[in-house]
From TrEMBL:
Organism taxonomic ancestry: Eukaryota, Metazoa, Chordata, Craniata, Vertebrata
GO molecular function, one term: cytokine receptor activity
InterPro entries referenced in this protein's UniProt entry, alphabetically: FN3_dom, FN3_sf, Ig-like_fold, Interferon/interleukin_rcp_dom, Type-II_Cytokine-TF_Rcpt
Superkingdom of origin organism: Eukaryota
A Pfam family that the UniProt record links to this protein: Tissue_fac
Protein name per the record: INLR1 protein
UniProt GO cellular component terms: plasma membrane
Length: 203
């Protein structure tokens, strides 16, 4: 009995939260224990489909390709097939994308370190290891809770800590940041959820 295995559907290469991910949905009537295998090709080497070792016969319907890509500046596309026992579906291809210009950023996570007369703010990003050395930056906003007037600190490198003198600040102050990336044009994430602290509060 050879089962006609239907190919995966909605095969999409998407860039989300600093990562390049291939996603798909199971073909109609797929058995519950079906698995998937993914390969990718570069636009400058068409028809040379590269294997992705961590996405061979996987049960889940996505594959993180970020660190499998040999070049983040060349457009790639991926393909996926369903495998079940000895049956295999046809391959289905995604569209072309490249990490460099298509990367989508997630807001950074802020860490606040309150000292006597200053506050130290640092931003961490959920980055895949292979893109650590790209030039990620962030912008930081500071404002008094309830006020529309924001003080901006712009263009800090990812590992930089912003030190703010708080001697003149009294009350509840809020911080929010966004990630930046200079590719073909400047990209930025949404601003992070505000983190607020009471400064120089004489209880």
């Amino acid at each position: 009995g050879h089962v006609q295995l239907l190919p995966p559907q909605n095969v999409t290469l998407l860039s989300k939260d600093f990562a390049m991910i291939l996603t798909w949905a199971a073909g109609e009537g797929s058995p519950p224990d079906v698995t998937y295998t993914v390969r990718y090709e570069r636009q400058d080497r068409l028809d040379k489909w590269v294997k992705v070792p961590h996405c061979k016969n996987i049960p889940r319907a996505f594959c993180n390709l970020t660190c499998a890509l040999s070049n983040l500046y060349v457009k790639v596309r991926a393909r996926v097939k369903a495998v079940w026992g000895r049956s295999q579906s046809p391959w289905v291809k995604s569209q072309f994308k490249d990490y460099y210009s298509d990367v989508e950023l997630a807001p950074p996570v802020l860490t606040l370190n309150v000292r006597e007369n200053s506050i130290h703010v640092s931003a961490s990003f959920p980055l895949p290891t292979c893109v650590e050395n790209l030039t990620w930056k962030y912008d930081l906003n500071l404002w008094e809770a309830g006020s529309k007037d924001k003080k901006k600190y712009e263009g800090y490198f990812r590992k930089d800590t912003v030190t703010i003198n708080t001697t003149a600040l009294r009350g509840n102050y809020c911080f929010s940041a966004r990630a930046l990336y200079e590719s073909i044009n400047l990209k930025h994430s949404e601003f992070s959820q505000p983190v607020c602290v009471l400064l120089n509060h004489k209880g």
